[in-house]
Amino acid sequence: MTELITGSDGLARPAWAEASDLMRTYYDTEWGMPVHDEAGLYERLVLEAFQSGLSWSTILARRENFRRAFADFDPDKVAAFTEEDVARLKEDASIIRNERKIRAAITNARATVALRDDGGLPDFLWSFQPAETPAPRTIDEVPTTSEESVALAKALKARGFTFVGPTTMYALMSAIGMVDLHLVGSHRRGCSGVWAA
C-alpha cells in the first residue's frame, strides 16, 4: 500500500508504521523529531549504516543490543575500540555481524571526535538542512536522495566518515527531522516543529 491507512486509534499513518507495535511507536514518538546532541546523531549515523540493505524493523528490534555493544553510542568510548572489540562484535549474534559496518561505526566515532575541533557533528550535519521539505502524498512520492544529502555525504566522506552515501544520509535527514517525509495527511506531518504542516 502506498496511501495512508487509519489505525485502530483513528490516526492516519503510512502502512510501514502500522506493521508492528514497535514500528508504530517509533513512528509516533521518534521518527522525524529533531535530534541535536552528538551522541544521538552518532547513534543514528551508526544505525542507518547498519540498516543499509536491510529493513529498518530489523535494526529497530536490535537497537538496545546495538546500544550495549557500542557503549551506548558514546563516540569517545567507541573511538577507543580495538581489534579485540571488532572480533567481539563480529561474534555478537544480538547485532548485525557485518565487519565492514562494525568498522564503519568505529571509524565514524573517531571522525565524530575529530569534528569537535571544527564545530562538532550537530552543527556540521544541520548545516545541510534544505530550504524546503518535500510534501509527499504517497510512499511513491517520497524521495530517496536530495541535492543536500549528496552534498552531506560528500562532506562527511571528506571528514573521514564511511557508510554515509546519499541515500543513507537522506534517511538520516528524515529520521532527525531535517526534512519532513511524513505523508501529507499523516497525524505526524509537521510534528518536528522544523517545518509547518
Automatic annotation (TrEMBL):
Please give a single GO biological process term from the UniProt record: base-excision repair
Name of the molecule in the record = 3-methyladenine DNA glycosylase
Checking Pfam families in the record gives: Adenine_glyco
Q: Which UniProt keywords apply?
A: Metal-binding, Zinc
Q: Where does Zn(2+) bind?
A: 182
- MF terms per GO, please? DNA-3-methyladenine glycosylase activity; metal ion binding
The signal peptide, as residue positions, is none
Under the heading InterPro entries, the entry gives: Adenine_glyco, DNA-3mA_glycosylase, DNA_glycosylase
- Among its keywords, does the record have Transmembrane? no
Top-level taxon of the source organism: Bacteria
